[in-house]
Fold each of these.
Amino acid sequence: MRSYVSLLFVAGLAFLLFVITGQLEFGAAPMRVGQAINQTSPAEVGAANIVTSVVLGYRALDTLGELAILFTAATAGGLMLGRPRAGAAHDPDAGFILRTASDLLFPLLLVVGLFIIVHGHLTPGGGFQGGVILAAAFFLPLLARPGTHFNHAVFSVFEGLAGAAFIVIGLLGLVYGGEFLAPLLGQGEMGSLLSAGTLPLLYIAVGLKVGTELAGLMAHIAAYEAVDS
Amino acid sequence: MTPPDLGAILFSGAFGLVVIGILGIVMSTHLVRIVLSIVLLETGANLLLMLSGYRAGAAAPIIIDGVIPAAMVDPVPQALVLTAIVIGVAVQAFMMTLVLRLRSVYGTLDIRELRTCLERDIAQEAGIGLPTSDNLPETPGVGPVRTQGGDA
Amino acid sequence: MSPVLMFVLPLLAAFLLPVVARGSPRAGRLFGPLVLSLNCVIGILAWATVSEQTQVIALGGFAPPFGIAFYIDRLALLFAIAVSLGVLLLWPDAGEDEAAQRENTLTLVLAASATGLALSGDLFNIYVFYELTAVATYGLAAGRRNGAAYAAALRYVVISSFGAALMLIGIALVYMATGTLNLAQLAQLAPGMLDGPLGLAAFVFILIGAGVKAELFPVNTWVPEVYAAASKRVAGLLAGIISKLALLIIVRLLVLVFQQAEALQILLLLGVLGVVTGELAAWTARDLTRMLAYSSIGQLGVMFIAFSIPGPAGLYAGLAVALHHMVVKPALFLLAERQGGALERLAGSAQASPVACALFVLLVLSLIGIPPLPGFWAKFLVVTAALAQPGTDYLLAVVVILLAAVVEASYLFRVIVQLYRRVPAARVGGGHDSATLTISAALGLVLIAVVLWLAPIGDGLRGIAAQAADRAGYIQAVLPDGASS
């Protein structure tokens, strides 16, 4: 009975969506705000990647919120998972291929991740994308040698400080720039690495935070035991 | 293909993902399938948001070698979807930790069995009989006897 | 002091809490309440300036509609202060171990995000803060970390994610139609662009999304289990404060963007359904927490009915009910912490802790709506505002509200009878701890204070509602040069 009602509901929703599709035009975005941003962003913010100037300039508060969501989810996940299993330190290593590949790929992934983070204002990419690659770099040793001790303390301190760095840069914008998260430090020459003021710094903070956060969460999942109250 | 057909295809794709996701959430009985359906649903919603910024014949909003393209697509939906994807990933990661914990506490990932366990545990804590049970005493302060289910 | 600090400081504190707690667990324990107290001070200081004139903060120095704007009128600031105060009062004082420190972090994030929700003036920004609030509540809902908590929390997460995806679809539809996300510019553009079926569909999607936390029918099925499985302080936070914030954003959207009559009708219908299902379910409930949870759903239904009445009168009535519920429900949940569980187990509570039971009676009387308590006055406002509207649907809503009050009285009196039933001294349980008692007593005193100063508080609220309903004023404040092309 319940599944029939649900099916009916979904059918109704699908019909509603189908009706809406007829009303939508593709390829003719009104761009009421987007057009102006495209035109003024090179002069106002100075980032070659205009999407970055939106993410870290015009809508920087959304990025802060997004960062906070990832942090909160990781904290909540850590709360769920609790202390590591007693036998976690003695998990067997993975096979030869995985171990060797992990040793080879770890530095490569770190470099790629950092590259994408640091160039976020010039090319597509940025803190979140690069941060995930950094986290993937840490996943590999976790998978290859599950018994290695993962220093949660260092990672969580790093994570907290990176997040705080984002907010502190924003507060400096409040003090020196007039508003919270106002871009500082001049714009430099567009297209060069040192351009767009504080935007690369913000992305570095984001990338480091995301990387350490996801790595910590994965380490928790890999070796958990929860203390039930 | 001419652009209008492309638009219809893309929008149908986005809404199709949404409908499949909702169907999955509503009809699945396995917890991991429900999580995957949520992933599909969010993917469809993100795709829809992305499509809202396209302007025909315009280029990507990136300035390469100082050359500013004449017409650029809307950068705002791209920033919005970036945020939305990360939010989705965060929630899905948390959902998976909950799934892991449920598996270890109750030993099952079937939502029907989990529903029974949940109601039983809540009723036990409150000290009342289960609403649908007909063979358990209603003595206040004494819960029903546990017949099955994993203890942590 | 810029009110944006009310959002930034708790968030900064949340990020730094793991670092601080690693240095000194004692400092970690006190850090949160300290920051929240500072927040309350900033809010109260800002009240004086905002009373003269609404404040618009352009984040990052980018003027709206290109950047995100915070719009701070008295309604927003009132809720921001209420969030800080409420989270401070309901702070989960669980100790100094790592789990407690994580819960404190989540609570700080909750305070920050709820404040952001109250202050924000941008549609997608509201979505981001809404999701932030959601994730914080996911963690807190599963905070007791037993099987029931995990299961209830997972159900909540699934329903909430479904709602969030729908909300995102609604936002996408709005953006496709108008090309902007700033609420003021949307208010300007809405009459032309959002009054057709596309706008109505967008409203329905966003309503379902925000309605998950506002305990709207039919996405409120998560409520009873989560309230039962979480600690009562968390239940108080969810029922008292977070649900009101979700309601606030729906109200803002109704006032500014979605002006169609159909939108109000949908809200009225869902409100009536919420009242009916909530109160009937509460009547059949056999344990106190479930009863309070369903009663919460019913009360929120009354608020939806109030907000579906167009104009400042509806806003005023809904605001009164919302603030009243914000005071009463957390207090009830706090008292139920010790007494929660089967109704039969409540017998003898009056002997164990007479003060708590007297408080309980006071709160219950206000909830039902017995004069001269504030609950009566709030419901009276809703009824009179609804009766002033033409049409039979509002008349039906009034009938439903009055019948619901009767049902409420019947099941709540049943509880009181149990409380005061005498049992042999050997079976009398323990009393409440002093912290719970003090907080509940403080909230009870607030109720009494409202009774004493009813007239000035009423005028103040009426002014706040009038300011919030002033659409033209909002547009003028945020976009002084009238942006849209």
Amino acid sequence: MNPGLRKTAGHFLASWVSAWNRFWFCPADPATLSLMRILVGLMLVYTHLVWTLDLPVFFSQSGVFDRQYSGVFTGDSPFVWSHFYWSDSPLWLWGSHAVAVAILVAFTAGFHTRWTGIVSFLIVVSYANRAAGALFGLDQINAFLTLYLALGPSGALYSVDHWRRLRRNDKCGPVEPSTLANVATRLMQIHLCVVYLFAGLGKMLGEAWWDGTALWGAFASYEYQTIDMTFLAHAPWLVNLMTHLSLGWEFSYAFLVWPRLTRPFYVLMSVPVHLGIGLCMGMMTFGLIMIIANMSFVAPSIVRQVMVQLGRGSSSV
Amino acid sequence: MSKPAKLDSTRPQHPVASGWSASRRTWVSLLIGLHLSAIFVAPWTAVEPRSQFGLVLRRFFEPYLQLMYLDHGYRFFAPEPGPSHLVYYQGTQPSGETVEGRIPDPQAIWPRLRYHRWFMLSETINQHAALLLDEEGMNRWKAEVEREAARFEQEGNLRRAAQVRRDFREQLRDYDNVQFLLRQVSRNLGQVLLERHGLSAIRLTMVTRLIPTPYDVLDGFHLDDEAFMPDELQVDLGTFGGQGREQLPGEEVKAN
């Protein structure tokens, strides 16, 4: 090999390795992860409290998804597991549910977060696998966010764990940046990009997203409707514009959320887009969890400033 | 006054070298690569059409994706928003009084997240029901497969003919599974509603609600107008009674 070419290739490779290491392995402040733990945790607690209202219907052998049904539905895969299959007794059903909710509360509060984080992820997966015919996007986003929060040090701040550390040692210094916090945040960001990319690509196969009428289909679906948006029938151009803008934003998110110039726009746009879905289509939980997922792109310094302001506000109250 | 902070988390807040050793970074990089490949392959190969290459990758990653509940397509409202599907039920109490209702019912099911669970149940039932064929459709399917296999035989390509028949048998097994799923979930839902409302018998019907066009709305139609729930799109899911008595579509009343 030509020595000059070898040298160039070596430099090229070294710069890639260096960029990879900078991207993944530079320690990061866990403030964003810690705030996300509280918000995702609250969503998990709410989601599982709502399951309580129909626990025997969706999670027991005498409910709608009995074992035979679930087996065929999931292709009898040994990898689709749930603790609800271990026993058919009502005591197990209700007892394990009570323990699960308690663990999710502990995770939200940041109590023994290393363990409650991992167990919370297992709980989310276990519930989703048992009630596979009653799920939607919320459950998918809940699960992957919990996975990465369990992986990273999401209990480092704004948590019972942090408060206990401070109490044990008054000289306890500030929370150190963590490589694992960066890895977890990066995985969350990339996973969110994959979600938006395929949500956008899937829509591009539909005629209504090209002729600009897709959002009308969403607004005029009686089963989804919570706010009457049928006045838009008088302004088809507005429906067209909103359809094209939302798809354009969704599809390009994976590419344009990374440059510093466009990132604020892409992250801030998630708020009206997802709040709009939440308010107009009655999917507030899904809308909120998507906004929370977008927080993974918010710098920890901003999170710290907001939390300090909130702290001042609450102490002045 | 301090400078406002920027939305920036791709640039590390503390640009110091990681405390991780090179070998640790290499191993973690490998795991990251595998994980990211898996979460990309999942939506890429989640629905048809899929490439053979994609399917090979899916088979490799599937156990991991299933174990971690990561096997999703993320096709929200894709390819486009479609009609809704509801399960209407009509039952009689032992006193002879009739009870009617529908799933999901925004007036009866609260909070909204719970309503969505029941909505997804009715949509899941429809996913099964939509795949079923009537007798004529089934005969047409069988005839098409037989015609294709016969054509290969005539061309002397016995291997392809055998493959067509093998594929058909496999698709038939999947079809039987769909039939089983529809019967099972309809029966189970029937039993849940029987108990909940203290009924002696209940009939379930799948109803499709089409999305009105803007012109329909301008003509004065409301979204919940019955005009958007055509009778020809209704599917009888069966009639169920106490002690396992049931009448599935096209069958006589029988006791389990």
